[in-house]
Amino acid sequence: MSENWKSWEVWRFIEVGDGHVRIMSWHDNHMLCSDGDGKVSTTHNIMGEWEKWEVSLAPDGSNGVVIKSVSHGRFLQVGKQGKLSTCDSLTGSLSTWHIAAANRQQFFLSSLAHDKRISCSKSGIFSTENRKEWEVWELHSEENGFVHLLSRKFGKILCSDQDGNLYQTDNVGENALWKIEISPTNTLHILSKSSGRYLSCGNDGKQLSTCITNEPEDSETWSLEPILPSKMTGEKMRNLSIGGSVAALSIITAPFAVVGAIGAMGFGSAVEAWQLGLGMAAGMMSAEAIASGGAIAAGGTVATLQSIGAAGLGMAGTAASMSAGGDTSMGESTTSMSTYHNRPFCA
């Protein structure tokens, strides 16, 4: 166990059939494994049985989930000195787990027209070419599909007044609520609830405001760039980002959605794409990778809440499989995507 929040602490939950999952390290592709005596380790043996787990809601109304070995019927727990083990029966909080999205709902808000970010300081809101702490925003869901945006650095909330001016505040009110919309051309527009005005980056990217328009133009087009834990490794990981609006919106509403941009990422095979590109942190990239020129994938994300693991399908193929209840190959087994759509992988 660790107090860190880096790539070593990111795991992917991969469907393997019959409601079971494998839990694979995003950093090195090792899978969580346990034996009948309670020892927990990791392995590369993708075809084994000791790597299969069941994830279910914690009993008795407790928050979180419990994770049980399929082979041995033992529950994953935190043992002595913070070491992992399994036990025959539940041990309260020691065997209760919380699963959070790897980016913790943190994004850069980037203008696609000018490649500028929305930044926050102690004195106000402005645009910049940087991708640093001042440009990190946490996205928090509100009722009826609205969100508010909180500066991670300063703890301030992004707001818009009736005249189109952006400002920051400490409280979530009507002026702090935003609706993220997908345009007919699959781009993102961000609408103020209180004023009905669209977030805009005009004047060559120097002027941030909101404006009234029937059809948002390029200056009202945005991208959400998820920020992953640091110390990512591997060139292929540097190309995983959220550029398409469908992908970004899915990350907002379903943090553990299935990435459907496999075809655009240049993987050698469907299995390789499944291993590298899917799961709780799929399709996102670190601030370091973005800043150093990581590519933006043009594909999107299609999934219902908590449904993870479509291998080798593009966005359209995943959508068709989900809507038709089609089967998707998962290595040694075949899993109906519609069967396990209500996974307890979110709070």
Structure keywords:
Trefoil (Acidic Fibroblast Growth Factor, subunit A), 3 domains, 347 residues, 4 helices, 4-stranded antiparallel beta sheet, 7-stranded mixed beta sheet, mainly beta
Word description of this protein:
The protein is mostly beta strands. The chain has three domains: 7-95, Trefoil (Acidic Fibroblast Growth Factor, subunit A) (Trefoil), CATH 2.80.10.50; 106-224, Trefoil (Acidic Fibroblast Growth Factor, subunit A) (Trefoil), CATH 2.80.10; 230-336, no CATH class. It is 9% helix and 32% strand. Strands 9, 10, 11, 12, 13, 20 and 21 form a seven-stranded mixed sheet that branches. A four-stranded antiparallel sheet has the order 1-2-5-6, with no helix packed on it. Strands 3-4 form a two-stranded antiparallel sheet. It starts with 10 loop residues before the first strand and ends in an 11-residue tail after the last strand. Mean pLDDT is 73; it is low at 233-248 and 253-340.
Overview in brief:
This protein has helices spanning 245-253, 270-277, 287-291, 315-324; strands at residues 11-17, 20-25, 31-34, 40-43, 52-57, 65-69, 75-78, 84-87, 106-111, 116-120, 125-128, 136-141, 147-151, 157-160, 166-169, 178-182, 188-192, 198-202, 207-211, 222-228, 285-286, 327-330, 333-336. The chain has 347 residues and is mainly beta.
